[in-house]
Amino acid sequence: MGLIAAITGTTCSAAVFVMRSTVVAEKGWGINDLKKEKTDAFVSAFMMLFLSGIIMAVAAGTLHISGMKLDDTVEMISLFEPLGGKLAAFVLIIGITGAGLSTIFPIVLIAPWLLADYRGTPRNIHSKSSRMLILGAMVFAFGTVFLEERPPALMVFSQAFQACILPAVAIPMFILINKQKLMGSNKASTKINLGLIAVILFSLLTTWFAITEFL
């Protein structure tokens, strides 16, 4: 159950909602660009689903049927080395490092972006407050390497925690887009509301999975 919550926290997380809306705002897209935004969102979601499916299929077709189980990320190097030698191990290390860095840099920007939106100020990551928040997030993220817990367990816990905060984003979003005074003629349609209700119910379910698994 914890792993299910972690997978959900990775792909359908509160961070994705926040970052997606910020990216749209940064591009300067408005209501007239809705079709373009939907196409962009569909391509992003499809590629994420496609790549995740490939990764799980390869793992199921190799590690699982061989009875192999990973307890540490470093063990992946020894599994790949017989297949491609030292080069395979080197590529794997570069890939893991790249995946980690490509994830952490966008995520540490969420706090400065949210603070700027709350204050009604421009999103300036070079400001003193933004730099302090980013530094704090980086220290916290890299500080986990000094914990005794195994990296895969930390990864599952952190992603499952993201699933727990998804309702805190999805429920206010549902309330706001249904406010006539705020949205005017762009108030959410029945189709959008049904989709958001499904997200909220799913987020509550995965939150329950995460809580029951780790308590």
In round numbers, the mean pLDDT is: 77
Main sheet?
none
In helices, the fraction of residues equals: over 70%
Low-pLDDT ranges: none
Structural class of the secondary structure composition?
mainly alpha
Shape: globular
How many helices? The count is 9
Distance between the termini: 12 Å
Strand content: under 5%
Radius of gyration: 20 Å
How are helices and strands ordered from N to C? HHHHHHHHH
Number of strands: 0
Say what oligomer this is: single chain
Structural description of this entry:
With 215 residues, the protein is mainly α. The protein contains 9 helices and no strands. It has helices at 2-11, 14-27, 34-64, 75-108, 110-119, 128-143, 151-176, 180-183, 190-214. α1 (2-11) crosses α7 (151-176) and α1 packs across α9.
Furnish the topology, listing elements before pairings.
Blueprint (H helix, E strand, L loop, with lengths): L1 H10 L2 H14 L6 H31 L10 H34 L1 H10 L8 H16 L7 H26 L3 H4 L6 H25 L1
Give the key terms:
9 helices
Could you provide a short overview of the structure?
By secondary structure, the protein is mostly helical. It contains nine helices and no strands. Helix 2 crosses helix 7 (151-176).
